[in-house]
Amino acid sequence: MSSTLSYFLLQILNALSFSALLMLAGLGLSLVLSLMNFINLTHGSFFLLGGYISVQWLASGAPWWLAFPAAFALCGLMGLLLDRFPFRQFYQRTHLMQVLLTYGLSVILADLMRWGFSADTLSPMLPQVLRGGVWIMGLPFPTYRLFLIVTGLTLALLFWFLLDRTLWGAAIRACVQDAQIVETLGLNSRRLFAIGMALAAGLAGLGGALGAGMLSVYPGLDEEILLLALLVVVIGGLNSVRGTLLCALILGFVTTFARVWVPAFANAATLAVMLGLLLCWPNGLSKSATRQV
């Protein structure tokens, strides 16, 4: 009984570590898709780029703890550049045009990263302090995953507060509803959108940097993370950051335990559960309240 409980506890911790990554990726996509009303299929590319930056940084011998701010800053800068061109020209266009643009860019970015970082699976050289494991009820658990849980959940909650509980987050939502009214209040809607795009890209890159030590990085990871992030945002509820966090937890736990209990059908089981949630709550798990005047 004790060994079974220990094993179950370790799987819960594994699920929390994966959920933390989904939260960071989902929050960034939620900001762009829900609040900015822009379909950005290059979001997974930012996650993969952040992973590659982390691998290269940790291999360079530079201070290891700067790898994560570096991934956030560089991916945020890339998001800012893409916002200036070509994203800005497509904010007011149809979603189909946005899909065509961003999907094409994601293919280009994937090929560039494969050319620049190789097509092999790469794992970061973790610092000594994050290597090894700790004993939890008689079973070992990787130290890095504990670091990932604490860091990822803390950052996810911090950015949730920024997006959902600050005037800046309210200004972003107001820009989506009516940018002209916001402009009359003295706010620069284009600057707000640019900051939002940079923050979303930085969050994805930060998730990739943290996830490199757990998932490794390889071509195709961008597509896998993009699909999971879309599930998190859509099932969590558009315009609901709280729903995004909740769905990231659910998806992380479902995916982890599906791989343990039914490894041969893990993907099918995960998608079946997500489909069930979507059928039960077609408007999302936490639909934001709206009012009309």
Overview of this protein structure:
With 293 residues, the chain is mostly helical. It contains eleven helices and two strands. It has helices at 2-35, 43-60, 67-84, 95-117, 143-164, 167-177, 179-184, 189-215, 221-236, 241-261, 266-280; strands at residues 133-136, 139-142. The radius of gyration is 19 Å and the shape is globular. Residues 289-293 have low confidence and may be disordered.
Give a quick account of the main beta sheet: strands, pairing sense, barrel closure. 2 strands, antiparallel
- Strand content is under 5%
Q: State the end-to-end CA separation.
A: 59 Å
Report the count of strand segments. Answer: 2
- Secondary-structure element string: HHHHEEHHHHHHH
Shape label: globular
What structural class results from the helix and strand content?
mainly alpha
Which sequence of strands runs across the widest sheet?
A: 1-2
Q: Radius of gyration, rounded?
A: 19 Å
Mean pLDDT: 89
The low-confidence runs, each spanning 5 or more residues with pLDDT under 50, are 289-293
Number of helices: 11
Helix amount: over 70%
In short:
The chain is an all-alpha fold.
Name its key features.
single chain; 293 residues; mainly alpha
Topology of helices and strands:
Blueprint: H1 2-35, H2 43-60, H3 67-84, H4 95-117, E1 133-136, E2 139-142, H5 143-164, H6 167-177, H7 179-184, H8 189-215, H9 221-236, H10 241-261, H11 266-280
Antiparallel strand pairs: 1-2
Helix pairs in contact: 1-5, 1-8, 1-9, 1-10, 2-3, 2-4, 2-8, 2-9, 3-8, 5-8, 6-8, 9-10, 10-11
Membrane topology: Multi-pass membrane protein
Pfam family, one: BPD_transp_2
Family: Belongs to the binding-protein-dependent transport system permease family. LivHM subfamily.
